[in-house]
Amino acid sequence: MVQVSPFLLVLFLALGAHGLSAKKCSLTGRWVNDLGSNMTITSMNANGDFSGSYYTAVSTTLEKIKVSPLLGSQHLPTQLKQPTFGFTVHWTFSDSITVFTGQCFVDDDGKEVLRTMWLLRSHVGKRGDDWKATRVGTNIFTRLQPQQ
Ligand code: BTN
Question: pTM (2 decimals)?
C-alpha cells in the first residue's frame, strides 16, 4: 500500500481548500432565483458595468409578464473575488422598477450564489398612496447549468 506522510496530506488539503476559495465569482451568464425567475447577464465591460434581461416568475400586476431589460454595475472580480453589485430592472409590462443589490459568493463546494435584497417601487396615482408603494425582499440566485 502507498504510504502518505501526514505532512503531504495536510499540504494537499490546504492546496485544495485554497483552490476552491480562489475561484472568482463572475456575474455573466444565466441565473435562476428562489422564486423561479430567470436572469441573463450578457455584457460586462472593463469597468464592471453590465446589461442583461430578466424574466420574472411572479408579478404584482395582472399584465402578461414579459422579458424586461436590466442595467447594473459590479466591483471587478479581478480586485475582489466575491464582488458586490447592483442592478435595476425596468419592467416593460408594468409601471414599476426594481433595484437589486447583493454580493456574489463562492460556496464551499465551489458553486456561485448571488445573495440579493431588492426594492420594488410600484406606481401610485397620488402622493397619499406613497406609503404603500415600495415592497422589500430578498432573492438568492444560482447559476443555470447549460442543458447536457
Ligand atoms: C411588477 O410586479 O410590477 C413587476 C414584476 C416584479 C417582480 C418582482 S421583483 C422582486 C421579486 N423577485 C423576482 O424575481 N420577482 C419579484
Answer: 0.85
Cα(93) to ligand 1 centroid in Å equals 11
For the beta carbon of residue 73, count every other beta carbon within 10 angstroms: 15
What's the CA angle centered on 94, arms 88 and 100, to 5 degrees?
20
Please give the full DSSP string across 5-72, using - where no structure is assigned.
-HHHHHHHHHHHHHHHHTPPP---EEEEETT--EEEEEEE-TTSEEEEEEE-S--SSSSPP--EEEEE
Kindly report, residue by residue over 44-80, the tens digit of the pLDDT. Answer: 999 999 999 999 999 999 999 999 999 999 998 777 7
Q: Which residue from 120, 132, 136 has its CB within 8 A of the most atoms of ligand 1, so it is best to mutate?
A: 120
Q: Which residue stretches of the chain have pLDDT < 50? A: 1, 7-9, 11-16, 18-20
* Cα 39 to Cα 30: distance, rounded to the nearest angstrom: 6
